Amino acid sequence: MKNDTSFARLVSLACHDVRTPLATVHGFAKTLTRTVALEAPADRYVEMIEAASTQMAELLDELSLVARIESGRYDPGLRETDTLWLAHAAVERLGDDRVKVAGEGLAITTDVDAVDRGVSALIQAALRHGGLDEVDVVVRGAVIDVSPITASSSAVVLGLELRDLGAAVAVTLIEHLGGTVDVEDGTLTITLAG
User: Fold this and answer.
1) How far lies 46's CA from each of 21, 51, 60, 64, in Å?
2) CA 193 – CA 27 distance, rounded (Å)
3) Cα–Cα distance between 161 and 159 in angstroms, integer?
4) pLDDT tens, position by position, for the chain (194 residues)?
5) Is 103 helix (H, G, I), strand (E, B) or coil?
6) Are 69 and 173 in contact (CB under 8 A)?
7) What span, in angstroms and rounded, lies between the C-alpha atoms of 70 and 30?
8) Cβ distance 106 to 142 under 8 Å?
9) Main-chain phi, psi angles of 133, to 5 degrees
């Protein structure tokens, strides 16, 4: 029997192994926040540790997901969701002052948690790498349009220029699930299968 030492498998294993100490850091930061009346600036430092450990856990989830897809070990947990709900979930993460949603959704069956994070990551990448304060999201059934997409952010949002892990993983995920991600005339079009 040959050992599986592929890069994707090693990344997946590393993500798994890092989760335990990270969970300890996050758990103790949360415990301190809830049980100890900390004075400034210690209270702010503990909040920053808690927020950073949450971000690290999300990055590990993204790395693990793409490693499982690349190694052929991804088994999506399919559930029904609505595409309009996915757009509104991005608003919850990114703020209603930054993301404006309109349109009508469609019920699809997909890996809800992963696609939810992916749609939000693509919208966040459009904001971050486009230098934008706000984007418009229009849902047309299984299609989610995000605009404007600047010329400088287009390749990043499509995962062609690797400067945003969330966007690159989202494109890989959506395409693996049978959807597409494309940019044309300043609009990012996410077509979800399901």
Assistant:
1) 16, 9, 21, 27
2) 37
3) 6
4) 455 567 887 888 888 899 999 999 999 999 998 998 889 999 999 999 999 999 999 999 999 999 999 999 999 999 999 999 999 999 999 999 999 999 999 999 999 999 999 999 999 999 999 999 999 999 999 999 999 999 999 999 999 999 999 999 999 999 999 999 999 999 999 999 98
5) strand
6) yes
7) 34
8) yes
9) -90, -25
- Tokens standing for residue 47: 């909040």
Amino acid present at 22: L
C-alpha radius of gyration, the chain, whole number: 18
Among 30, 69, 64, residue whose Cα is nearest residue 47: 30
The letter for the amino acid at 66 is: V
